[in-house]
Amino acid sequence: MQDNWHRRGILAGLAAMPVLPALARNGGIMSGPVQPTWPSLVEHYKTPDWFRDAKFGIWSHWGAQAVPEQGDWYGRFLYMQGHPMYRQHLDAYGHPADTGMMDVLNRWTAERWDPQALMQRFVKAGAKYFVSLACHHDNLDCYDSRHHAWNSMRVGPKRDIVGIWAKAARAAGPRFGVSNHASHAWHWYQPAYAYDAEGPRKGERYDAYRLSRADGAGKWWQGLDPQTLYTGRHMVAPDGIESMSAMDQWHAAHNGQWIETAPPGDAHYARQWLLRQIDLIEKYRPDFCYMDNHELPFGPIGLAAAADYYNRSIQWHGKVDVVLTAKQLKPYARGAMVQDVERGFSDHLWEEPWQTDTCIGDWFYNRARFTDKSYVSAEAVLQRLADVVSKNGNLLLSIPQRGDGTIDAEAENILDDLGAWMAVNEVAIFGSRPFHIYGEGPTQLASGMQNEGAFKGFDTRDVRFTVKDGALYIFFLKPPRAKARIAALGKARWAGRIARATLLGHGEIAHSHGQACLELDMTTSPAIVPVLRIDGSGIGSGTKPI
After folding, report:
1. Distance CA 208, CA 302 (A)
2. pTM (2 decimals)?
3. What's the 3-state SS for 324-370?
């Protein structure tokens, strides 16, 4: 089944190819030395130094799905009978045959959003780049979109969310980025064309199935076509499904798959995605663009988007000085962009720069995270940051916002704790590079990458390293509160000579450099991720990892 969808999607992508020369002729796709092929992307791309220096970014993964305060994928799950979000939607807004996601989009008003104040808080917490969500799977462009009428200028806030964020970021200092998740809207939204399999409204199709542009006459959405939002009938559940479990199984087997190809028989969707992506890049000139894709979407269409972005950067900066991220890059794509690993850990030091993205809670605001006090702590964020940076990576952290644009008190506390740590220890993070080994400790990660949900935390013996300006920095992921011994820095394994050891924020500490290990007196270390600076000679010496 999945292979068939893949083959059809490739054919749809190839059918869209004739639009590429036309876009180039009409001032759409930017021409230049970078061609829409993997070899050309690899040839012309090098990760910018600004990104390697930045290390830490904050992401406003914010849009209309924050309004119900239920967490992630609300726009899909409200159409799946029996799901908690379906039940919440019934209670709060009504039956999805009458009131669907398009109505939730319009409830997003952002009435208390203060982008300048939030940006100052993010910068204080250490953010060197900031990312604004431009369009999620709910298919609402959160910007002044030229090619998609369902956008935040016409629906919901009636404001250019991306443009306002861009202005705030550039005024405050961080590099500015955007994230695009829209390529998945076409399969993600297909439950909106389904129906209740049980109960008093059994068999009655939801709003996406029945609504057309004509139905908007005299309503708030007059002139807008719901089918453009919901993307059309591509994988519609057949009549006759008799139970909620059977309906769930049908969705899981069909539209529940993560699909990077175009809708079967609908190359128009992929072409429109490309027009929207080009418009986003041209209008806001982001330094960073996050693609929520395994490699690039829609075959040649995605390659054209990447080439367009790089050629525009050459026009803006005289070189490719931007970052484009994607996930699960195959060998032929390595070096064409920066690999992103969503909510993951690495078991090794990467040769090429990479990024992991994660969140202190759910991607979209979930009030239960606040009331249950289940956010990721500042300590855990800093442990993650030290671990990732030691392995040549960056951390992009999402701070959930309510629908009104505010963040809650727990999120504020976490940001304040990050800021307090950064005020003492940021020298060991920003502008640093990996040591010849990332560190040591008993905590073993799975081979490759490991999802954070399965990870149990660090031990007091877990240390991570970075180097900067001739100094070695040691991060203790859990404070030892006693003598700390680091075998990797013993004279038998490392040729460096130590002149002094300084605990950042406290001063010099006693140390002993023996054959077996470096021993450090850490009895007075701070409560959260203490950092030690080692000065001496031969700091960078040692054997490179295989």
Report:
1. 27
2. 0.94
3. EEEECCCHHHCCCCEEEEECEEECCCCCCCEEEEEECCCCCCEHHHH
